[in-house]
Design a protein that fits this description.
Layout: H1 3-11, H2 15-28, H3 34-46, H4 63-75
């Protein structure tokens, strides 16, 4: 099922079913913030459970995204 098909299926649900779906999603998949994700990634690297590849020209952050990444890394003490 494509993302568009899922969107269309959810849009077709009655309001009460959308509420139930939302409650289930929030309970099953808690929202993660950048700080939590970066701290977890750092722990996984330190524990030897993850060996990330270096950024490439296609996936390296730039501009405002790079600024946010550097600020977050600095706040978490991850900037090396």
């Amino acid at each position: 099922m494509s993302f568009r098909e899922i969107q269309n299926a959810v849009a077709a649900l009655p309001a009460e079913e959308k509420k139930r779906l939302t409650a289930w999603m929030v309970a099953s998949y808690p929202a993660l913030d950048v700080e939590t994700l970066m701290a977890r990634a750092s722990r996984m690297i330190e524990e030897g459970n993850w060996h990330p590849e270096p950024p490439t020209g296609e996936n390296i952050p730039t501009g405002a995204t790079l600024d946010r990444v550097l600020d977050t890394a600095e706040r978490l003490g991850l900037r090396k």
